[in-house]
Amino acid sequence: MNRRWRVETALSSLLRERGIASLDELITILVMGKEPGLQNQVVEALLNNETYFFRDRSPFDLLSRHALPQLARKRAARKHIRIWSAGCSTGQEVYSLAMLFAEEGVKWAGWTIDILGTDVSTAVVDRARQGLYTQFEVQRGLGINQTIRFFEETEGGWRTVESLRRPVRFQVHNILEQPPHPGDFDIVLCRNVLLYLTNEKRRLAFDRLASGLAADGWLMLGAGETVIGQTDRFGADVEARGLYRRTDGEGAIEKRSGPDRRVAAKG
């Protein structure tokens, strides 16, 4: 009952706008396919697009201290790193990742950095591509030096500078579908997305994320999310709490099959 109330609250504005009397009437219209485009409007209304630059700062510090230095060594021959931000919303996470590399420009000189942001919402992907934010959005999570360096003020708001947009791209994608580049991503971030899925859909999403990740890559989830009891495709990285490794891949993982059973493995 609580879940239905939350759905009705999220859709209340859309129901009024379209002159639909109730949630049951909306479901009937969707099933009968009477109004093309309504399904996308419903999806947009239900999505929680809360995000900001360097959200929960510690995950970005973890990437900087642990994952990126290891990738600098492992990928030294090819000098190419590919990162996927699944459920990227309006793009702040993607641009935050781009800032991590830009702030260590000398270290990453000569490297190709590809950062892909995906989201099921066309509207937020369009916004992310623009890289245009309000003053409030820019100030939320960024210091004055980062604002001056990475943004330029325009009539429409604060826009990311061209050098920050260069390594990033965005596309509409559902994490329940096949990943954009199977097996190619060195890091996959899927933060605060899976908790909105049913157990069955969450297992499928983990399968999709695993198939998108390189064998020695890392998965990062949100603070309230875990792989424990959710999937057997990932285990905790014993060297960096908060990051996960494919259980069939390389690297240090901790595979848990119960609250008291732990098996550590090294590839």
Q: Care to describe what's here?
A:
Pfam families: CheR. With 267 residues, the chain is of the alpha/beta class. It folds into two domains: 2-46, no CATH class; 58-131 and 162-265, Rossmann fold (3-Layer(aba) Sandwich), CATH 3.40.50.150. It contains ten helices and twelve strands. The chain has helices at residues 2-18, 23-32, 38-46, 58-74, 92-102, 122-130, 135-139, 144-150, 162-165, 199-212, and strands spanning 80-86, 112-119, 132-133, 151-154, 157-160, 168-172, 185-190, 213-221, 234-236, 243-246, 253-258, 261-265. It has a seven-stranded mixed beta sheet, sandwiched between helices. Helix 1 crosses helix 3 (38-46).
